[in-house]
Amino acid sequence: MQTVLYVTDDQERKGNKEIMEEFTVIGKRISKVDAVDKATGRALYIQDFKLPGMLYGKILYSKYPHARIIRVNTEKAKALPGVITVLTGEDIPPVRLGVYKDNPPLKAGKVRSYRDEVAAVAATDLETAREAINLIEVTYEAVPAIFDPEEALKPEAPLVHENHKTNLLKMPWNLHYGDVEAAKIEAAFNVEERFSTTWVTHCCMGTSGAIADFDHADNLTVYTNTQIPSLAQKDFQETLKVLGFKDKRVRVIKPCIGGGFGSKLDTYAYEHVAILLAWRSRRPVKIVFEREEEFCATSPRQPTVTYISMGCDKEGKLLYRDMSMVLDNGAYTSWGATTPSVMMMPITSLYRVPNVRYNAKCVYTNNTYSQAMRGYGNPQATFAIESAMDMLAEAAGIDRVEFRRINSNQPGDVTPQGLKITTCGLPECIEAVSRDLEFGRPREKGVGVGLASLIHVGGGARIYKSDGCGTIIKMDDYGKVDVFTGASDMGQGADTIIAQIVAEELGVKVEDVHVFHQDTDICPWDVGAHASRTTFVAGNSALGAARKIRHRLLNMASETTGIDEDKLTLKNRAFFADGKQVLPIGKLLRGSHFKPRGEMMMADNFYDPPNENMGRDFSGNMSATYSFGTHGVRVKVDEATGKVEILDYIAAHDVGRAINPMLLDGQVHGGVLMGVGYALTEQVILENGRNMNPDFRDYKILTAMDAIHSKAVVIETVDEQGPFGAKGIGEPGCVPTAPAIANAIYDAIGVRIKDLPITPEKVLAAIKKKNGAVSCGIDAFTQKEQPCE
Amino acid sequence: MRLPKFEYFEPETLEEALRLLAEWRERVCVLAGGTDVLVKMRNGRLKPGAVIALERISSLNGIGFDLRKGLTIGAGAKLSDVTSHPDILRYYPAIARAARVMANVQVRNMGTIGGNLCNAAPSAENAPPLMALGAVVTAASLEEERRITLDDFFRGPGLTAMKPEEIMTSIFVPTPPANSGASYQRISARCGVDIAAVSVGAMIMIEDTVCREVRIALGAVAPVPMRALSAEAFLKEKVWSEEFLREAARISADESRPISDVRASLEFRKQMVAVMTQRALEEAYGRAIKR
Fold it and tell me: Using CA atoms, how far apart are residues A158 and A145, in angstroms rounded to an integer?
């Protein structure tokens, strides 16, 4: 793995070189502040937490994909020594979860998927809880189930939610800008194709878990793995309200999180079940998932069926893009159903395309329901768009790289959806990839190259009314800094980035800064760790708070030393004038309150980026800036087995500025490997709704042994809005990987795979189809077509 | 999961182990590296009353080679020892490869070659190359010592020809004949840490371009690792040619009996039997004519 830093011309004009030299911690490869704690086992995860009197909860899941619950007999479970509480769907008030409020934490009357929670137990130890779950007898009456979203739209399909009257969710994702029909007539070249993607899951190393604990006055504390502490607090508050508790305090405490990737953007049934069990038993209750539960009962990436048509004029300028999708919503509704809101971004704005139309239908089925996952719909949409880009370039007889150059977004563009492109390193990304991968290199048999680009929100994303984040900074008598942020570090390194930003602004060292993000009682509000927004939004929030402190420090130092403020600099834990140290920060701070009318050094700041909610027509400048990138890959396809080997991989990203190139490496290389798994090996295999591979043996996440040779190219465009010029980069790494690989496979062997993952079986089948029924692939020995039997 | 209560023995001699085995009979479980047994105990598929650990019996762990006779691998030899033994690397590269590509470093450091065979998974990585090379295992009980060819060893998924009172002590592989070569080929979804979807071990002996001896063993395509006898018969005494090689591969695919599961479909497995057989024979041929 290697990283190359390119600086755009723009930036050189701004005198970036000087700025870079001035920084002491920004732009430096600094280890994560929690690295040693995590490596040595000091870091506390939900698995490590134990409260006095704590009970252990377990959940019983459905045995059917769709069935009436005739009877639940909990007598034997209740009689087991050590069992304190048993709850079924009949025992709880009507709590409803999720964006569509269609999901009770324990189901009564009917189950709609295998992951449906039917009953729950709290016991004095985990083994007893497990045993008790097995003693619960549930009588089901199976009813017809539906697993194909396109079938589920037909009038005769069984209804997943009878009260809903239809399997089609009332979420009309529809946009049309310009005139697609007219553009279709005008276009010189057109392509039309169907693509599909399936479920993949986050595979967080730390499994999900929560502890719910009521105090004597019915205030609730929930320890939980969440990316959205403030919104989770609201969800739990709602559950409390249903339980009849009004005006109670809900405190959310986040232990260290072993991976988020979007999986923790919603509250799950298990968290509410823990609350219900704690409420009934009046004792703290802990539920931690086993690996099989993690696979079966957390929500994977949203699967899609996509129809795309796209056309360009004779010169290769895109004229229109017309897309429609059917989304398998599963049995309940979480953020998966809202991924079209992000898909709209690449659909309307990846490359310049004047006329766009898109609609998506979310359809109830008896499958598992989906959630956010790194990219939030963008990888699914980009797979179709970038595959079709190659097809269109071929149809138009234009070189693939050139075709992308012609249509590249440019700084200053306003896209049909109203996205205002400010800094835009896409042209540089395309050049970097084409240069590095040598697209014109002589061909070897079975070897091909491909590329694909991406656009993603890089300056927050206004999904809610607020896209804000609060920060409180406090400095102690020794110049040490406590930062209380709304941001959530789930392993991505938010704490380190925030510490770097604050340390840079306050002239202290990174180790002088302690970032707190774990507790809603202590930390200010934030909308959550999603949309690659943390560095940008929480970073700007922290920077604003630090600026306030800096301003006061300089002010006080000037008063104390009698030196003009503008002659003082703040660096290396002290104030300097004319290059000489005049006052250490600690000394100034101690003096500030050991005196009459003393003051404390504290500041707060709420930053809400200048972006817009979508309007009724789904237009609006969703993000304060946009991240761009291009990935290129060289593959070798074994035409006898269908196996795809990645020979070279290059990922060029416009990141605004690399605040910490080491963490950036982690995001890019990690994202790429996740993308390669998405492209080639990973899938949650559901057979009639049942998860057939809920373990790491058969869920083919790539391992360290499968890590590919990849190169990260960093394009710095220094965005005016970003903290020190940075844009968000959490998600982009896995967005264009699959289409880049699919395009490279096409280049290598002339078959286009339209359904993810691109398994050897699909590649072989496609080769067979391409060669007509008479061939069964390439003979390994002769390298010739092999006739079918 | 917490394990239910069981007795645990660490005998230091084979005799002691066999006595314990005779005493506990069906209620006992023999533990070598533990990489299969402990997993099964954890998920409740195995509930032994007693566990007899063999690790302290040093006589089971050795690897010895005699050019005139052959290779004797102690059943308790760790997979990592098999992959790094100089004689195995030199004379039995197919065996070294099978042990090297299976599982991961941690499992190879604990797991044993005897354990892999006794676990009797259809996909047992070590079985195809050992079968191709004519391996014979020795099973000991208090009464006798028995030799079982690996061809007769596997009886079904998880089932072997060993009696409950027996412990596998060693695996013997004859010295490969002159002008012979062997190969192990496999395919799985990812590169590392993955179970084989199809695996093939092959051995051939070439004399004046005529294929005098040939053995092909297939893994993960039947309830047990199996010999591709029709393919072998077809190739035997034939002058080596691409055409015959391809035909042998096709026959081998024909006689395989795979199933469809989450790892691969039946059709794909059959195709891969042909491809892997062809590649194994090809590599074996290359090695044979080099000798």
Answer: 6
